[in-house]
Amino acid sequence: MPNVVVVGTQWGDEGKGKVVDHLARGVDAVVRFQGGNNAGHTLVVQGEKTVLHLIPSGILQDETVCVVGNGVVVDPVVLVEELDGLANKNCGVEPGRLVLCPEAHVILSVHRLIDRLREEARGAQRIGTTCKGIGPTYEDKVARRGVRVSDLLDEAALRERLSKLLSVRNREIVDVHGADPVNTEELIAELRPQIERIRPYIADTLGLLHGIWKAGGSILFEGAQGTYLDIDHGTYPYVTSSNTVAGAACAGSGVGPTAIDEVVGVAKAYTTRVGSGPFPTELTEATGEKLRSIGHEFGATTGRPRRCGWFDALIARQAAMVNGLTQLALTKLDVLSGFDSIRIATGYEGLTRVPSRVEALEAVVPIYEELPGWDEDLTGLTEFEQLPENCRAYIARIEELVGVPVTIIGVGPGREQTIIRSL
Ligand code: IMP
Questions:
Q1: Please, what are the domains in the chain?
Q2: From the CA atom positions of the chain, what is the Rg in Å?
Q3: Most C-beta atoms within 10 A of its C-beta, which of 65, 128, 196, 305?
Q4: Claim: this prediction has a pTM higher than 0.85
Q5: CB 288 within 8 A of CB 308
């Protein structure tokens, strides 16, 4: 089986978890390579809903090894909660099934605190972060004062790193925000039980992944967020703090680009966004409300209502370029049943690219094309040929505009509600 990267092509929440869950069948390892528990993957297996924020969705496959790569930021509290949650569902995770990279950076409570204090201070200018401490943790990584998973294994070294980190962070907490400083010993005491719990899962992920690759095994790289939340390629500054594009799969896992065979981009059949920032095809009236209620568009991580709009083919076309997409997975197509007509933005007036500055992106005028809708319920369909003619025409138009074949189609939240199209 090929080594595949799965990424979001919009602003996250495209339904990557379900696509990964499908593609993970039979693979040897599923790897997360960026982001942290700002992601939220809702999986429905045998009617039961499981939301994972950090552990790769492949954990629900019996044999797959799940790897948290070096590019991820790991919150030990969340990791322990997810391990406990899975154990309560009779899905206990043995060490060896989940492997944590020693080079991954650790999200500390001080990072969560700073994320929240800053968002509160920004008021109307807030980014709408998930307040999970993702940004401050990546900042400390780049500033070379972060705490890595391997540091958790040596308390003396951890104490030294924490006091350096806190000497900088407490200045912001106290002087800028007027809050109480964070104490090194209290932070260590908070971490101790979590460290003991996650210690068995920390191992050499680099050796593991290379061993699988060299033995002809297969690896699935599970992206989080989406292309337009990428720190470089997204709608900066309304972005997350990591590279979310397919290229990051290599840097964030330690597997070189020659190992990658396929890149699957996941796109919702319409568009959504949580948090602030430009969204050219956003629908602020009844149609947007209809998409939100039929599509249950509320964030898996924060519960916030998602902003909804029509499919934006320029966004998707540029995502195909940036990620080197070889296939497209179109999710939540069932949500579009019952619309008289469906619109696609084929581009923006006078532009061939998504503009770099948010001010310019906010001012674009999308060019819409109107396609006839369909009334049929798609949720029970299993074959591409069963899809209504207008629905197939919609998919064909998306393929034409994006330049990538649609090979996977989501027609409902369940694992089995997925149409696989052989080309
Ligand atoms: P952060 O990643 O918490 O720093 O948030 C930065 C921006 O990315 C905010 O607009 C968040 O709403 C957005 N974001 C982060 N993770 C996700 C995700 O998994 N899905 C959708 N949006 C996300």
A1: 4-101+201-263 (3.40.440.10), 105-198 (1.10.300.10), 266-420 (3.90.170.10)
A2: 21
A3: 65
A4: yes
A5: yes
The token pair that represents 188 in the structure block: 């260590």
- CA atoms in the 13 A half-sphere facing the CB of 53: 22
Q: Which two tokens stand for residue 242?
A: 């990591």
Residue in the block written with tokens 């290379």: 210
Cα 207–Cα 196–Cα 212 angle in degrees, nearest 5: 15
Active site residue 13: yes
Class of residue 350 by CB neighbours under 10 A (exposed 0-12, middle 13-18, buried 19+) = exposed
φ and ψ at residue 158, rounded to 5 degrees: -60, -45
Listed residue (234, 270, 268, 255) closest to 5, CA to CA:
255
DSSP 282: B
Render 62-87 in DSSP notation, one character per residue.
Answer: SS-EEEE-TTBEE-HHHHHHHHHHHH
CA distance 112 to 191: 14
* CA 387 to ligand 1 center in whole angstroms: 33
What's the CA-to-centroid distance between 355 and ligand 1, angstroms? 21
How many CB atoms lie under 10 A from the CB of residue 381?
20
**Looking at residue 35, what DSSP letter applies?**
B
Give 121-177 pLDDT, tens digit per residue: 998 888 889 999 999 999 999 999 999 999 999 999 999 999 999 999 999 999 999
Q: Which residues of the chain have pLDDT under 70?
A: 45-46, 423
**CA gap 411, 137 in Å, rounded:** 37
Helix (H) or strand (E) holding 271: strand 271-273
Looking at every residue in the chain, the average pLDDT score rounds to 95
pLDDT of residue 151: 97
Residue nearest to atom 19 of ligand 1 (CA): 39
The 3-state DSSP class for residue 119 equals helix
Do the beta carbons of residue 12 and residue 220 sit within 8 Å? no
* pLDDT value of residue 40: 82
The residue from 21, 28, 41, 151 that is catalytic is: 41
pLDDT recorded at residue 94: 93
CA of 5 to the centre of ligand 1 (A): 20
